[in-house]
Amino acid sequence: MFSLLALSLVASLAVAKPTMVVHERIQAAPIGFTTMRSADPSTMLNMRIALKQNDMVGLEDALMAVSDPASALYGQHLTKEQVEAFVRPKPETVAAVNAFLAENGINATSISPAGDWLAFSIPVSKANDLFEADFTVFSHAETGTSAVRTLAYSVPAELRNAIDLVHPTITFPNPIGLKPSFSAPLPTVGKRQIPASCNTTITPACLQALYGIPTTRATQSTNILGVSVIEQFANQADLTQFLRAFRADNANATFATQLLDGGSNPQTRSQAGIEANLDIQYTVGLATGVPTTFISVGENFKDGNLEGFLDIINALLAENNPPKVLTTSYGQNENTISRQLATQLCNAYMQLGARGTSILFASGDGGVAGSQTTRCTTFLPTFPSGCPFMTSVGATQGVNPERAASFSSGGFSNFFAIPSYQAAAVSAFKTRLGSTNAGKFNTTGRGFPDVAAQGVNFQIVLDTQTGGVSGTSCSSPMFASIVSLVNDRLIAAGKPSLGFLNPFLYSAAGTATLTDVTAGNNPGCNTNGFTATTGWDPVTGLGTPNFARLLAAAMAL
């Protein structure tokens, strides 16, 4: 009798396994990755769950209302609390997901200001069981990168509308990203030689002359320019040497440092990174007097192998006064990231844009082959350039006239549709394109880049040596500097900062501030890629900046 009663009690207390449904699946690992072996069951995974956000449609409407010059709400950027109200998951969503985790002995921690991301660590054996997954070790032969991932995973049927995604699962690392190369030593270019040399060698003086960038010092202390770099360090001594050579009138300028995910700020010159020095030297060196913060991201990613991309945005969203401009020169091929995760990151950029931050990313350095790879039969868009809530910057070279740099990544997203602000420009380009490259790109996708700027043979200082760097990594911080200088003048006049740029840039007034680039192309995938042409194109976007025209148009908003 006792044993039967005990068995009955145990049965009544047992938690039945829920009905599971496949939540995300890919057919195979991205190109370059091969299956090695089943993951060790004891390997710990830093898992992340993205909860269904409250009202992204409402937030997008609010973003466009404060970013569209034709709107009565233009410039009335949202507060931290207003944005979080759109994003914060419903209480029942949070309760249901936490109950599922608790039933399996997991206590999750919220890692985002609005509570839409949860974090926890579990071994592979438990992750396989919990999500009906098959975590496997994949290897990338070209770089030696390895990763534990699964090609599919499931969630309880009753939670499929509460959970946006689980990570890391079907999103793979980015072994081949934007990697500017450094050629040293090169002769330092003297100021008297600059006009003749700007066709082949770029210095701050070249950019000031080409784009009309002023040297007058900025005055607004709230106008922060953020430069985010992952696992690299910027060196002050190298910056000072750079400024003495190329901006002697600004030779004492410095930058602040913000540390994330175990980031550090070593000032031994041999530890400086090419990307970090490039970005700092061409923001501090061009945005004269603008307070510049170097966001140094270490290896302790809280966002679960997203290389700090989500951590950066979450950290800035948690601030009451985030930077007015944020530039990042990293990216990856869109096909290495899941559609749901790309949407989540894109939504994070939407949140920061609604707060009044202009977000700029380098478009990539592989032409239509994406992020420095040629193993493709159809064109590879890059991420986050395909996200409609940020500004993608391509590259040009040469002067009088400028032409597209052949490496400038551009194309059309496979994840994101054409945004309304871009519809007319993309339609006009596709009409001119005709049947060229038919079947090689998504005709309904968001086009990128949005704008362009010089990107070939930028002089920088690295560990005391002066040399050249090329890539869209040069173009994004340079364009960001111009936006920051415009913001300085706007704020001084009592006006709001530009915020999310694209609705303005694609308007008639915004397009008139840019110089159209109509020569060059971006080959890849065994094709000539796209060709720069009149109007917007997926090589150089709308064109390159003119500071005076941009400032005048911004002041008139």
Automatic annotation (TrEMBL):
Domain Peptidase S53: 201-557
Subcellular locations according to the entry: Secreted, Extracellular space
Active site residues per record: 275, 279, 473
Pfam family, one: Pro-kuma_activ
Residues holding Ca(2+): 516-517, 535, 537
Keyword Signal: yes
GO CC, any one term: extracellular region
Secretion signal, residue range per the UniProt entry: 1-16
GO BP field: proteolysis
EC number of the protein: 3.4.14.10
Catalysed transformations (reactions): Release of an N-terminal tripeptide from a polypeptide
Keyword annotations from UniProtKB, A to Z: Calcium, Glycoprotein, Hydrolase, Metal-binding, Protease, Secreted, Serine protease, Signal, Virulence, Zymogen
InterPro entries in UniProt: Peptidase_S8/S53_dom, Peptidase_S8/S53_dom_sf, S53_propep, Sedolisin_dom, Tripeptidyl-peptidase_I
Cofactor(s) of this protein: Ca(2+)
One Gene Ontology term of the molecular function aspect: serine-type endopeptidase activity
Cofactor note: Binds 1 Ca(2+) ion per subunit.
Keyword Hydrolase: yes
UniProt cross-references to Gene3D superfamilies, sorted A to Z: Peptidase S8/S53 domain
Role played: Secreted tripeptidyl-peptidase which degrades proteins at acidic pHs and is involved in virulence.
Protein's name according to its UniProt entry: tripeptidyl-peptidase II
Organism for this UniProt entry: Exidia glandulosa HHB12029
